[in-house]
Amino acid sequence: MLALDITRIKETEFEASAVLDGNALVFRMWGNADLRISGPLGPFLDSVDHEARRQKVSEVVADLRELVFMNSSCLKEFVRWVAHVEDKGAGTRPYQIRFLSDPTAQWQTRSLQALRAFAPDLISIEIPAQT
Question: Whole-prediction pTM value?
Answer without folding.
Answer: 0.92
